[in-house]
Specification:
Elements lengths: L1 H29 L1 H23 L16 H20 L1 H22 L11 H29 L1
Helix pairs in contact: 1-2, 1-3, 2-3, 3-4, 4-5
Pfam family, one: DMT_YdcZ
Keywords: Membrane, Transmembrane, Transmembrane helix
Protein name: EamA-like transporter family protein
Length: 154
């Protein structure tokens, strides 16, 4: 089952990059906020159909959860809005590596302090180095993107 979850996550990464590229291009004509709205409206319709035919949970449980947990909805909207704005400016790979760095940073903080009932995992040198290497990767990717854009413009 864990191999299947790794595969699903891998496919999720592929779809995220494809969606980022498509939405970034689409936003040049429709606008960043408008593209984000269309994405969420379409996603809502798609998910409503899935819930209708395959849902096994309790949608009304939304009314019972602590209100702070509903903040995840707004965080998802902000995430997509930032992605759609960034891709046309810095490219898909630079956007995605920056997202990964952001995920690592907040993941380390959440693990270190045990926020949201997560495991407490102390910050160690391996984690520092992983962030450092990701930032170095971002630097080289961003510089390569900039050089490519300059060559195309020349």
């Amino acid at each position: 089952m864990s191999i299947l979850m790794i595969l699903f996550t891998f496919l999720g990464g592929i779809t995220l990059s494809a969606q980022s590229a498509i939405n970034g291009t689409f936003s040049r004509k429709a606008g960043t906020i408008e593209t984000t709205l269309l994405t969420f409206l379409s996603g809502t319709l798609f998910l409503a159909i899935l819930v209708l035919f395959f849902g096994q949970g309790n949608v009304l449980a939304i009314l019972e959860v602590p209100k702070w947990q509903l903040s995840a909805v707004f965080l998802g909207v902000l995430f997509l809005l930032f992605i759609i704005a960034a891709v046309p400016k810095i490219g898909v790979i630079a956007t995605n590596i920056t997202v990964i760095i952001g995920q690592l940073v907040i993941g380390i903080v959440i693990d270190h302090f045990g926020w949201f009932n997560s495991l407490v995992i102390n910050l160690d040198m391996k984690r520092y180095f992983s962030l450092l290497f990701m930032m170095i990767a971002l630097y080289f990717i961003y510089k390569g993107n900039k050089r490519s854009i300059e060559e195309i413009s020349a």
